[in-house]
Amino acid sequence: MVVSPPTSVLLQAIFLIRQPPQSLAARDLVFVQAIWRHGDRAPQSLPYPNDPYDETAWQRGWGQLTNIGMEQMNELGIYFRTRYDFFISSHYVPSEVYIRSSDSDRALSSAQAFLAGFYPASGSFQWQSGNHWQPIAVHATSPGEPDLVSSDNKFGDQPKSTSSRL
């Protein structure tokens, strides 16, 4: 099965490769930063006044991740696992991976679905028979803390419009 990343993908995943295995010492990958949006989600509100599909038509409610969105993010995790398999441990090691998310249900759910594909539990890490999911920390912004992941201004302190300087 060929896995390709979804196109609608803003979480921030940072992979820190401290010491590659000895057999891979010639490789130089030290840092990978990936940024994507959440997976497919339900509409934020009723799209038009007479829409027969109200909030009850969406399994988790307005603006929440759909099953398709969870599948997209899980597939993205599998893609990243395939892409970086030679550089990371086969099991979750907190010093190798840092996942940061906006503090919204759909973004946090997207991060968890990504991690389920990236680090499926196996062997002694499988804490429940038949369950290949394992809890992995996702760091989110606290209330009142600047949200660097979903800020309106994506380029730090630069003004939103720079056309006058070009």
Automatic annotation (TrEMBL):
Family annotation (PROSITE patterns): HIS_ACID_PHOSPHAT_1 (PS00616)
Segments for region (Disordered): 141-166
Catalytic activity: a phosphate monoester + H2O = an alcohol + phosphate
Lineage per the UniProt record: Eukaryota, Metazoa, Ecdysozoa, Nematoda, Chromadorea
Example of a GO MF term: acid phosphatase activity
Alphabetical list of Gene3D superfamilies matching this protein: Phosphoglycerate mutase-like (3.40.50.1240)
Entries under Pfam families matching the protein: His_Phos_2
Protein name: Histidine acid phosphatase
Similarity annotation: Belongs to the histidine acid phosphatase family.
Source organism of the structure: Angiostrongylus costaricensis (Nematode worm)
InterPro entries in the record: Acid_Pase_AS, His_Pase_clade-2, His_PPase_superfam, Histidine_acid_phosphatase
